[in-house]
Specification:
The complex is a heterodimer of chains A (180) and B (514). Chain A is α/β, with parallel strands linked by helices. Chain A is built from 6 helices and 7 strands; from the N terminus they run βααβββαβααββα. Chain A has a single domain, classed as NADH:ubiquinone oxidoreductase-like, 20kDa subunit (Rossmann fold, 3-Layer(aba) Sandwich). Helices cover 30% and strands 20% of the residues of chain A. A 5-stranded parallel beta sheet of chain A has the order 2-1-3-5-7, sandwiched between helices. A two-stranded antiparallel sheet of chain A has the order 4-6. Chain B is elongated and about 85 Å long. Classes of the chains: A alpha/beta (180), B alpha/beta (514).
């Protein structure tokens, strides 16, 4: 049996989708029995998946230049990209900031917040820059499959991964398709 | 006889019926969004699209014709509907997770139905202000799909005609009174826009996050807040009333006003933690205090059964106020109001009291060009040459106006003050306590669900004063003892509405809530 490697990354999100991933519980073992292995993932604490990884799972929307590079790196190294969670699929909660300019947001958070005292906007080269607009993943790279939900149902993640591992085209139906 | 084909099966009908209604009849589901069964179809959203002999048509507005060959679910049509839903989702902020009606939303269900799992287009480009100025309704144009159900219900059913559409294309928004905040507009808070909205554009503030439709139990009942007695649907969850909607299938056909829809819920929630008893139980509690000089005073906020119980228990029973005995002669039914051409109004505000009656009059003026004469608002030299039938609807008619009602041949409808005033007259009679000048009482028992005004002249004359009420926020300080009695939702009972119809209310809650 050929192993299918899975890499996951976590962009502008809350990690709820990774929690939902772990909530597959004993079904995770089922997937591992069917040949799933992990490469880079917050679960293994490795950052960069090797080239030729079979399935890349992306949680969270793209809000900074670093995240933009990360998702592009995922596209290069993974054969199939699955966007999981409302943030990755639609943009989600982080898009709430799209109404305002980046300078306004930084100023509100670091300079004018009620609890701030003598503070300033942090500036250093290694801090990621906020993009003008928060984007869902498919506005940056091509995404093959989508699992919406906040968080997505563990069953939906299971069904999708199972279909991909078995070489079929996944499709969410009924209760597995959920926007909340 | 029209003969036509639906999905290659031959049907025939003689009815003048739309394609959508016919498909419903034979059990074929077509998704709809702007269509509402009780409103006139406008064919705005085009989600109900079907294919007839190579042409695409709205099934909600197209009538069945002879020789039609209708296709309803070809792969092409399914794909088309999915795209249309997607265009609507992409246009505004339809991010379900921060919407209060998620999981209870017609538009969201269409997304699930069409299997929409992502958007092809960028979203959230149009951002409108959220309107939080209204006391009961949260109004957010960012979630609007411009189906115009709210506009249609506001003019067609409620007759208020507050809402309208402003702007063009993607920039169109729903506005109240052509652009003022909803809270400052002429909105009467009937809440029908919330009831028909398929998205979260109009949301009840008092009902949000209290429970979704499918988590609640629905009871069909009648409103006890005013003498019209509209048909309502009460949605409960545990011991809480989540929301009250109007009942489209009742005799008022979906009419409701702010009293039944919001105030009844707020009142109930305010009092639901208190100890409340039925009238039978409270009478047992005070039975040993009832002697031959005891007097009971009742008003029209009680049910017939309760009035009868009080009448048989106490030696003397009076009414709290004088009731106009003419209300017993009300014999006009609600449907007959649509036949009148002139409405003469006195003593009440169309927007604030008897809301459904006001709606009927306002929509008659709007759609049938009826004449509405407010006797209180302006000194009208009354012109007796009326066209068509006229009706005089009044609460407290003051004869100083230049109108001799008896000379003109017009019908009358007298409005009771409290819900069950007709029952009060029928059971207790018209013996008002204020007309009894030399009344010496030992113990005075006042029964009223919502005591607003009380004459303290007879209060002073009695030795001990007991009040049996539901609304403790009313007039209670002058009483020695105050007992809580159950609300209309916690007891069975009957009452007469202003059309002299006997209405039975079944209890909504199984037990009294303590």
């Amino acid at each position: 049996m050929k192993k299918k490697t899975v890499a996951t990354i976590w962009c502008e999100g809350c990690s709820g989708c990774h929690m939902s991933f772990l909530d597959m519980d004993e079904k995770l073992l089922d997937l591992i029995k069917k040949g799933m292995t992990f490469s880079a993932s917050p679960l293994t604490d490795l950052k960069i998946p090797p080239h030729g990884t079979d399935i890349g799972i992306i949680e969270g929307s793209v809000a900074t230049d670093t995240q933009e590079e990360e998702v592009k790196m995922m596209r290069e190294r993974c054969k199939i990209i699955v966007a999981i969670g409302n943030c990755a699929v639609f943009g989600g909660i982080p898009t709430m900031r799209n109404k305002y300019k980046v300078s306004e947001i930084l100023s509100r958070a670091y300079e004018n917040a009620e609890t701030n005292y003598n503070s300033h906007i942090p500036s250093a080269e290694d801090i990621s820059k906020l993009l003008e607009k928060v984007k869902p993943v498919d506005k940056v790279i091509k995404v093959d499959y989508y699992i919406p939900g906040c968080p997505p149902k563990p069953e939906a993640i299971y069904e999708t991964l199972l279909k991909i591992i078995e070489g079929e085209k996944p499709e969410l139906k009924g209760k597995l398709l959920s926007y909340d | 006889m029209k003969v036509f084909k639906i999905n290659s099966v031959e049907y025939s009908t003689e009815e003048d019926i739309t394609i959508l209604d016919f498909l419903k009849k034979i059990g074929i589901y077509i998704p709809v969004l702007c269509y509402h069964p009780y409103l006139k179809p406008v064919g705005k959203c085009r989600i109900c699209v079907i294919k007839d002999r190579g042409r695409y048509r709205n099934s909600c507005t197209t009538k069945i014709e002879h020789g039609m060959d209708i296709q309803t679910h070809t792969p092409e049509l399914i794909e088309m509907r999915k795209w249309m839903i997607q265009f609507l989702f992409g246009e505004r902020n339809h991010y379900c997770m921060y919407c209060p009606i998620t999981n209870d939303c017609e538009f969201q269900n269409l997304g699930y139905y069409t299997g929409l799992d992502h958007f092809h287009f960028s979203t959230y480009e149009n951002i409108f202000d959220t309107d939080n100025s209204h006391p009961y309704i949260l109004f957010d144009n960012n979630r609007c799909v411009l189906c115009t159900r709210c506009i249609r219900v506001c003019s067609e059913i409620a007759g208020h005609s507050v809402l309208s559409e402003k702007g063009k294309g993607i920039h169109s928004i729903i506005v109240a009174d052509n652009g003022v905040p909803l809270g400052e507009s002429s909105c009467t808070s009937c809440g029908l826009c919330v009831q028909v909205c398929p998205t979260g554009t109009f949301v009840d503030k008092i009902s949000m996050y209290q429970g979704r439709s499918w988590e609640t139990n629905k009871f069909n009942s009648f409103c006890f807040s005013c003498p019209v007695g509209c048909g309502i649907e009460v949605y409960t969850r545990g011991s809480n009333i989540v929301k009250i909607y109007s009942d489209w299938n009742s005799f008022t056909k979906g009419l409701i006003c702010y009293k039944g829809r919001y105030q009844a819920v707020i009142n109930y929630r305010k009092n639901r933690r208190r100890e409340l008893n039925s009238i039978d139980d409270v009478i047992e509690k005070v039975r040993n205090l009832i002697d031959e000089n005891s007097v009971a005073v009742v008003d029209g906020t009680l049910f017939n059964e309760e009035l009868e119980k009080i009448k048989t228990t106490f030696p003397k029973t009076f009414t709290l106020y004088e009731v106009n005995p003419k209300i017993l002669q009300n014999n006009i039914k609600i449907d007959q109001l649509e036949n009148y051409q002139t409405f003469i109004i006195s003593g009440w505000d169309l927007d604030k009291e008897y809301g459904s009656l006001g709606s009927i009059i306002k929509r008659s003026k709007l759609h049938r060009n009826c004449r509405v004469i407010h006797l209180d608002k302006e000194e009208i030299q009354f012109n007796p040459q009326l066209t068509g039938k006229a009706i005089f609807i009044y609460k407290n008619f003051c004869p100083k106006q230049n109108l001799n009602i008896n000379e003109l041949e017009i019908d009358e409808l007298v409005l009771p003050i409290n819900t069950n005033d007709i029952g009060l007259l029928k059971i207790i009679g018209n013996q008002s306590i204020s007309s009894e000048s030399n009344l010496n009482t030992s113990n005075l028992f006042v029964f009223s669900r919502d005591l607003k005004v009380i004459n303290d002249r007879f209060i002073e004359k009695s030795q001990r004063k007991f009040l049996f009420t539901y609304n403790l926020n009313g007039n209670t300080e002058m009483f020695d003892h105050v007992f809580g009695i159950v609300s209309e939702f916690e007891t069975n009972g009957s009452f007469y509405n202003l059309f002299n119809e006997l209405i039975y209310l079944e209890r909504v809650f199984e037990k009294e809530v303590v």
